[in-house]
Specification:
- This protein is of the alpha/beta class and 99 residues long.
- The protein has a single domain, classed as 3-Layer(aba) Sandwich (Rossmann fold), CATH 3.40.50.
- Helix content is 45%, strand content 22%.
- Helix 1 links the parallel strand 1 and strand 2.
- The longest helix is centred in the middle third of the chain and has 13 residues.
């Protein structure tokens, strides 16, 4: 099972440094295309998506967050936004396993 990230260029670059592939998106069309292509890849088990990218396709993301069981979706804050939780705890909560 692999991770995949959808978000802004900085987020995708940061995740690529630790070996996670991803797609940078800047508008709704790009976000929809990235989401659809990610779902086609059966080896992807966890999709990490930034809040702004998720907002571009909110109804689609929410359907997977609240009703689909696979792949798991982890929504993370955008770079520069303050969050009360770190990325590790967000991922741990989503997958139910401590990393």
């Amino acid at each position: 099972m692999e991770y995949y990230v959808i978000g802004d260029e900085d987020t995708v670059l940061g995740f690529s440094l630790v070996g996670v592939q991803g797609t940078a998106v800047a508008d709704e069309r790009e976000a929809r295309t990235a989401w659809a292509k990610t779902l086609e890849k059966r080896e992807i088990g966890i999709i990490i998506i930034t809040e702004s990218a998720a907002d571009m396709i909110r109804s689609t993301v929410d359907r997977y967050l609240f009703s689909e069981s696979f792949p798991l979706v982890v929504e993370i804050p955008d770079p520069g936004k303050k969050s009360t939780r770190d990325l590790r705890s967000l991922v741990n909560e989503a997958i139910g396993v401590s990393l």
